[in-house]
Specification:
single chain, Rossmann fold, four-stranded mixed β-sheet, two-stranded antiparallel sheet, 6 strands
């Protein structure tokens, strides 16, 4: 799904206005596709040690795979809870493969949460969601995706008001050590 803002400016054009960049200084573009299609984003071993391959030309990417081991910041907000537990693990492994091995590289996000992981009765956007608990989400990243102690995982569950309902959300980050 491609999001287009109404009015004269599209999403990327608004980004250039807000951050005082241009197509030349920040050649971003959308790469549409299925995050579970290995031609777009494959699962690879987590990068360790210095990245030897040069950064690809971002302006011509048609797949995320050339970015393996190069990304220092990945924001995965409002993403994981739309998938069942098996697909969440697959997506976490795929995103971890994109992350740079440099200390401080981070994957972060916000997603639906619960006291105990499972299908959430909170209905957002007309669909039920699979929500992790703070503990289960920490265990995913510290031990299942990254080796124990290889990354610092922070997860905080908060209840917030959303469209006249109270929803539980996990605010989380995974930082390479």
């Amino acid at each position: 799904m491609l999001l287009t803002l109404t009015g004269k400016l599209g999403f990327l054009e608004l980004n250039h206005v807000l951050f005082r960049s241009s197509k030349e200084t920040w050649p971003a573009h959308f790469i549409p596709g299925d995050a579970f299609d290995p031609d777009l984003l494959s699962v690879v071993p987590i990068a360790r040690g210095p990245t030897r391959e040069p950064l690809p030309d971002l302006s011509v990417l048609t797949s995320l795979n050339p970015l393996h081991g190069h990304c220092s910041v990945i924001n995965a907000s409002a993403l994981f809870h739309f998938f069942d537990e098996e697909k969440q693990l697959h997506l976490a492994r795929a995103l971890a493969g994109l992350l740079s091995p440099q200390p401080g590289s981070i994957i972060c996000g916000i997603q639906a949460g619960k006291e105990e992981k499972g299908v959430s009765t909170q209905i957002i956007c007309g669909t039920q969601l699979f929500a992790q608990s703070a503990k289960s989400w920490e265990e995913v990243w510290d031990g299942m995706i990254f080796e124990k102690g290889e990354a610092q995982v922070r997860v905080e569950k908060k209840e917030i008001a959303f469209m006249e309902n109270k929803v539980e959300l996990l605010f989380w980050s995974v930082t390479r050590l």
